[in-house]
Amino acid sequence: MSHVVEDLLRECAPQVLGVVARRFGDFALAEDAVQEALLAAARHWPVDGVPDNPRGADFAMPGPDEFAARLRSVLHVLYLIFNEGYTSSVGGSLHRTELSGEAIRLTRAVHARLPSDAEVAGLLALMLLTDARRPARTGPNGALIPLAEQDRSLWDKALIVEGVELIMAAVERGAIGEYQLQAAIAVAMVHGPAEGLKLIDALDARLPGHYRLDAVRGHLHEMAGDVPRAVAHYRAAAARTTSTPEQRYLMEKAARLAH
Question: pTM to 2 decimals?
Answer without folding.
Answer: 0.67
